[in-house]
Design brief:
By secondary structure, this protein is an alpha+beta fold. Helix content is 23%, strand content 38%. The chain has a single domain, classed as PH-domain like (Roll), CATH 2.30.29.30. 23% of the residues are buried.
């Protein structure tokens, strides 16, 4: 997904502000799903990932369709800063850079991984580093 499509989705979902630090997080199937469903394990999840946009007042989140990879703008939501209980940031593994969980005050969490293939894109890497610096 290119920068123009991300900006367009954020704009359509009304999740843009003056300061935007956006990047893409992916949802990878767990080992149990991979064993049970093999190559179809990606379709077990409703979403394939998220567009994450950190702004001064919170975090905007747009799910990505697991069938098309397109932003699901109608399912977008904004998590205000004062509703964020905790953000867990773990070291990555062989195929991903970081594992991130955003937990709200009701202990609802979204968890995603940031793959290493976004790191060469300077803007996304800088946005991710600012996100990590804020919540680590």
């Amino acid at each position: 997904m290119n920068d123009e499509k991300i900006i367009s989705a954020l704009q359509e979902a009304n999740l843009l502000s003056n300061n935007n630090d956006y990047f893409i997080g992916t949802i990878m199937p767990n080992a149990k799903d991979q064993i049970m469903f093999g190559i179809f394990s990606n379709f077990v999840k409703e979403f394939s990932g998220y567009i994450i946009n950190q702004v001064d007042t919170g975090i905007g989140i747009i799910p990505l369709s697991n069938m098309t990879g397109k932003p699901m703008v109608n399912n977008a939501y904004f998590l205000p800063q004062n509703n964020i209980k905790k953000v867990n940031i773990e070291k990555g593994g062989l195929f991903f850079y970081k594992k991130i969980s955003i937990i709200d005050l009701n202990n609802q969490a979204i968890t995603f991984k940031v793959t290493k293939n976004i790191l060469p894109i300077k803007k996304y890497k800088e946005n991710l580093e600012r996100f990590i610096a804020k919540y680590q």
